[in-house]
Specification:
The protein is of the alpha/beta class and about 375 residues long. It is built from 13 helices and 16 strands. The strands form 3 sheets. A 9-stranded mixed sheet has the order 11-10-9-8-12-6-13-16-15. Strands 2-1-3-4-5 form a 5-stranded mixed sheet. It has a two-stranded antiparallel sheet with strand order 7-14. It starts with a helix and ends with a strand.
């Protein structure tokens, strides 16, 4: 069992490499182990969801795959799409044993991939490192079961929970190490989302600037109910280089057409009772577009609205040792952050240090 866990953790590490690049498909890792315990093939899902992890690993293993074992982080697919099912490819390669970390809730696959393997006489062991695999696949699972992306909220605050000083200036509350970790979060999400208030106040680029990861630029999403985004802001000016989507209640007009001509994708959404973008319906629209993982870096209003709508699945809290005081801007409008984290549906799953700052990752139940 210890050996199985070791091999599956190798596959999980491979799956993590693809996060943020494989949507609308899941990021899967696969390792092929021969009878002597040697790694003879490995792979993870390619950009845009192709090729599949099993295909890559089997191509590396070649004929040596016969009689070997495969460790896969997600149940092998069973449906015919652009390629033949991975379950059938494993059978054709004469794999002797398949270890699967977790199941696939997609109705085209659920249980069918394992059935193909078992009917071919292949031994299947299920559930090795399932908790870790479920966390990696949470975005894909949420889109399958709830028809929306997983939402991770990132907040960087002072020790007393403020995101800006008295004048509203918010830049660099936390240190450079926290900002680097924040860029890594951007790289492994399909999209970054902010509200129009953040765009007007900070004119952000919302790109990934980590060395070696500049090619991994997630979709930039702005929630802008009345289409007030300036045409000369950084997001619009670079929209032809990095995908930029604006979710708005507007559905036409001169500015709408101008933004489209500048490379921006406009997503029209129904308004709520306050005349603003209905966030729940927006998430359904984004799920339809194929987005599985969103990193919300919005301001206090957007953060609070997402929490109130029960749309946040994870929270990353970066906290500096500095104190701003009561005159600062709180991280969540009309919601006390410390009281929120004390709720029983907030579970601390990881914590660590980034320079002088502390970061914590919470999983949120619904």
């Amino acid at each position: 069992m210890k050996t199985d866990i070791h091999h599956m953790k190798m596959a999980l590490a491979l799956a993590q490499r693809g996060l943020g690049t494989t949507w609308p498909n899941p990021s899967v890792g696969c390792v092929i182990i021969d009878r002597q315990g040697h790694v003879i093939g490995r792979g993870h899902t390619g950009k845009g969801g192709r090729p599949h992890a099993e295909t890559v690993a089997l191509s590396h293993a070649g004929k040596a795959a016969e009689g070997a074992g495969a460790f896969v982080t997600l149940e092998p697919c069973a449906h015919h799409g652009e390629t033949s099912p991975c379950a059938e490819s494993l059978v054709k390669a004469k794999i002797d044993r398949v270890v699967v970390a977790t199941g696939d809730p997609d109705s085209r696959v659920s249980g069918k991939g394992i059935k193909i393997l078992e009917q071919a006489g292949i031994r299947v062991d299920f559930g090795v490192c399932q908790t870790e695999a479920d966390q990696i696949n949470q975005g894909f699972f949420t889109r399958c079961t709830e028809k929306r992306p997983m939402v991770t909220m990132k907040i960087a605050t002072s020790q007393d929970g403020m995101i800006a000083g008295a004048l509203g200036h918010s830049q660099w509350i936390t240190g450079s190490e926290s900002r680097q970790r924040g860029h890594l979060l951007r790289a492994n999400h399909d999209a970054i989302m902010v509200g129009i208030g953040t765009v007007l106040a900070d004119n952000p680029s919302l790109d990934c600037r980590l060395p070696g990861l500049q090619s991994r630029q997630p979709v930039r999403i702005v929630v802008d109910s009345h289409l007030t985004i300036p045409e000369n802001c950084k997001l619009v000016e670079t929209a032809k280089n990095i995908p930029t989507w604006i979710v708005t209640c507007e559905d036409g007009g001169k500015k709408f057409e101008t933004l489209v001509s500048l490379g921006v994708k406009l997503v029209s959404c129904e308004a709520n009772d306050q005349g603003r973008v209905d966030l729940t319906k927006m998430m359904t629209l984004l799920g339809t577009e194929g987005i599985t993982r969103i990193l919300s870096e919005g301001g206090a209003e957007v953060n609070a609205s997402l929490i109130r709508a029960s749309l946040v699945d994870r929270l990353y809290w970066f906290r500096s040792p500095d104190v701003i005081g009561d005159e600062g801007l709180a991280a969540l409008a009309s919601v006390e952050l410390n009281e929120l984290l004390a709720r029983p549906d907030f579970h601390l799953i990881r914590t660590g240090r980034a320079g002088k700052d502390i970061w914590q990752e919470f999983e949120i139940g619904h």
